[in-house]
Each structure stands twice: as C-alpha cells, then as structure tokens.
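Closing statement on the cobalamin sub-project.
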Amino acid sequence: MIDSGRPSAPRVLLVDPYRALDDPMDRKEVERYPSLGILQLAAFARSKGIDVEVVDLTFSRNLAALDRALASFRPGLIGVHTKTLTAARSLEIAQRCRPFGAYLLAGGPDAASRPDHYLRGGFDAVVQGEGEEVLVDVARRVADGLDPAGVPGLSLLRDNRLVRGPPRPFLRDLDALPFPAWDLIDMEAYLADWERRTGERRTAILTSRGCPFHCSWCSKPTFGTTFRQQSPGRVLAEIRDLRDRYGVNYLRFCDDVFGIDRRWLERLLDGLTRERPGLQFECLARVDLLKPDLLARMRKAGLARVYVGVESGSQRMLDLMNRGTRLTQIESAASALRREGVRQYWFLMLGYPGETLEDIEATLQLFRRFSPEEYSVSIAVPVPGTAFHERVKDRLLHRRPGARGGGTTLLYEAAYPEYLYRWEQARFRLDAALRRSRTKLSHRVVDRLEHVADRFHEEVATPLLTGRRGGPPD
Ligand code: B12
Ligand code: SF4
C-alpha cells in the first residue's frame, strides 16, 4: 500500500545490464540465470507500494527494451545491478538514461567495491551492501522531491568527494522477504534456454546471505562475513511455487556455501525427499562440509552436481589461502561424491602468492587421481578489499582482467611469468582430454602420452618459461 499523504507513487525501473547474446565467450561459458538480486529488490519494493518494472537485457542485443520502458513507464528512479564484468554496460546505461532526468542508482558487488567508478561515470548514488530498504527509502525521497543524501547504506559525491551515509543494519528476518518477482521478467526465456541445452527446466534459488569463512582471496562486498538463512519451510514453499507456476524440475542453490548449518540442511533434505517428485538440484559446497553420510542423504534428496572449491593440491597453499580445509577432506569428499554418482565440478587456482612449481604439480596430481567430471583452473585474481589484494597491491600489473572477468590473465607480478601459468592451465586441459580418451584409446597409449607430456613439461617448457627449475616462491 502507498503511504497516505505522499504526493506521488514512486516508480522504479530496475535494470540487469548483462547481455549474454552479445558476447561469444559468455554465450558458451556462462550459465544463464535471472539476477536474484534484481528480483528480490523488485519484490520487496513492490510489497512496500512502489510501482516496479524490470528490464532484463540478458537475451537482448541492444538497449531497445530499455528505451521502450523509459518511454512507457517513465520511472522516477532507475536502479542498475553491477558486476565487474558488466561495468562498462552499466555506465552505458547511465549515459542513456541521463537525459531522461530520473535518479540513477547503482548497486551490486562491483558498485559496492568501487563506488567512485560509478559515481564519476554518471550515477547519482551507489548502494553499498544489502539493497532492499535503501532502495525503498531512496525511491520515496526522490518521489517526494527530497535529497537522498544521508540515507543509511547510500554513498554519493558532494563537492567531488565521496560521502558515505551511515551503515545500514542487515535485514534480520529473511523469511519475511517476498518470493523473487519472477513475473516481472521473461522466465520462460530462461527455462526454454535450459530445456534446449539440458532437457531440464532449471532456475536459481537462494536460501541464505553471506558466508562466515575467511578465504584470503574472496571478495564479499555486499553481505560480508555475516550469515543469515531462511527456514527450511520457507525454502520449500518457494520451491513448490517455482514447480507449480513454472514447471521447474532442476534447481541451482546459489548460496555462497550451501549447507553451512548441518541441522538446517538435514531438515531441508527431509522436506525435499518427501515432496520433490523428480526434482534435482546442484549447489556449491566446501569439502569440510561434504561428509560422506550427509552426501548419501543429499543424493537421495536429488543432488546431481556439486561445485567444490578444491583450489589447490598443496596443504601449504590451502593454509596460505586461509582456506580452512585439509587435503584429507578433499580426498574424502571427492571419493564420496564418486561413490554416490554425483557429478563434481572442481574450482582450482594457480598463481597465489607463495606457490612453487611443486605446489602446482601437487594440484595436477590430485586432479589426476580424482578426475572430476568438470573443472576450471583460474589464475588468481587480486580483488580489491581482499587480504590477497592487500598483500600484492604494490605489485599490480594494471591490466584488464580476461574476457570472462578474470582467471585468464595474470594481474600482479607473481613468482612466474603469465606464460608459465597459461602453460600449466593447458596441462590440466590436456590431462582432462587424455582421461576422456581412455574410453577410446588403450590405457597403455594414454599412459605413454601422459609420460611424454610430463617429460616435455620438465625438460622443455619449465626451463623455457621460467629460466629455472622449480624457482623459489615469491
Ligand atoms: C549465483 C551467482 C552466479 C550465477 C548466477 C548469476 C546471476 N544471474 O545472478 C552464475 C553461476 C551464472 C554466476 C556467474 C558469474 N559470476 Co557470480 N555469483 C553468484 C553469487 C554466488 C550469488 C549471486 C546472488 O544471487 N546473490 C544474492 C543477491 C540477493 O545479492 P546481490 O545480487 O548482491 O544483490 C543485493 C545487493 O548487492 C544489492 N543490489 C544489487 N544490485 C542492486 C541494484 C540496485 C539498484 C540496488 C539499490 C541494490 C542492488 O541489493 C541486493 C539485495 O540485497 C555471487 C556471490 C554473492 N554472494 O552475491 C557471485 C558473484 C556475483 N559472481 C561473481 C562473478 C565474478 C561471476 C562471473 C564473472 C564468473 C565467471 N568468471 O564467469 C560470472 C558473471 C555472470 C554474469 N551474468 O555477469 C562475483 C562478482 C564480483 C564482481 N565484483 O563483479 C560474485 C560477487 C562472487 C565473488 N565473490 O567473486 N554467478
Ligand atoms: S571462498 Fe567461499 S567459503 Fe571462502 S570466504 Fe568466499 S564464499 Fe566463503
């Protein structure tokens, strides 16, 4: 309901600037899900009597949908979701909207990490953190003709200086949030896209906010190290709604880490097992939480695939990363996933400070032993605000991150040149290809090829790319 006495109902247009079809790299690699940030903001604002529309550019090739919404909806406030990968697009949108006279607000992980970039690029203000209440406050002030300066959680420029409003406490009760506003976007476009690719009607869901761990390379600009979760009953209700309204039969749990609280997870699994006919799911988990007995229950409840943050096969590196996991936990989780027939996608990282060639070799050997079905090996990205960035900030190379938002380019002066890391990435790819070919070629041939590749690595590639054998860590 609109509060009585307000001169006009605030009209808010929320924009997701990501354009999958425009970028050949993303088209192949990035999985397409609606932005839950945008949909949760929209649902919350709507529940407070604000008129909301969403422009989701994911399946667009240009800004025509934005132009149409500007002309027909005539918003007083335009809010743009930001990620580093889409920073240029967000600024392009600000420029496009500027002549229209609406208040321009940026939010999301990239704007929260570097508000200056967005404020100087054309936005009136930036939300640094959880956005629901800030959005509603700012929309009401703008509609009432008031200056939003000083709203908690909001940053803006005054006399060319960044002025941050006081911090805003996090929402206490996530159960009180309405379901994401799926009706404001073209859900069928996403579902049909997945159906074409995998045969499943997939979408994403979130059960918690934040992560209490402290991995030294991880950036958490929005929810920090807080951890809040919805009740299992609330999560099940949302899943039921997705199934009944959209025929969803496969879910990606998008929590930073799924199942941090074991008792909570068991209650959710019981609910899923009881009432999930044909529903499958995937999630991102830590190896220390993937206990074999729990995995069996997760499998029974529909678990099909797990993203596992393995990162390194060297205990010394895991400790340097402040990862808080043990190699034995990786081994136990990987074996249990294999036994249960759950697909595993490993995240691996090269080039973290202190890493030697021996550490990289240990990672490759671990990868060989367990041959995960899927994996990615990235070159460590020092993200501002992290302990890793702090450690190497005097050695940054000031280059643009790779086309996929990092992971393919060396961004600081590490122990070895970029070519060495690229070569090591190629070794993982070669290894995975050899493993796949075991079904077609004899084991003897594959072993022989593996041996030749290892000899080439030791005798040709390493001396050539490093000028030394197993150089010292930096
Ligand atoms: C799920 C997820 C994905 C999914 C789905 C993405 C999608 N469509 O949303 C997939 C797997 C596809 C994915 C891909 C990628 N992701 Co991702 N992803 C996440 C994850 C784990 C959850 C996102 C989410 O739903 N959050 C929950 C919602 C509620 O939070 P939120 O979006 O931040 O929104 C809140 C506030 O930020 C704020 N807010 C946000 N926007 C706005 C706008 C306005 C106007 C206002 C007022 C407020 C506001 O209010 C919201 C509600 O409180 C986050 C980590 C995280 N915890 O956020 C990483 C994260 C967003 N991803 C990240 C990255 C790097 C990527 C990739 C580039 C990875 C890659 N190399 O391919 C791609 C990029 C894809 C793309 N479309 O741009 C980074 C982004 C860092 C950055 N600075 O940009 C994050 C933060 C992870 C990290 N710590 O590094 N990702
Ligand atoms: S990497 Fe994962 S577990 Fe580590 S702090 Fe970040 S979100 Fe948490």
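The pocket of cobalamin (ligand 1) is lined by residues 18, 30-31, 33, 35-37, 40-41, 79-81, 83-86, 105, 107-110, 113, 127, 130-132, 134-135, 204, 206, 218-220, 222, 254, 256, 404-405, 407 (CB under 6 Å). With this model delivered, the sub-project is considered complete and its resources will be redirected to Aim 3.
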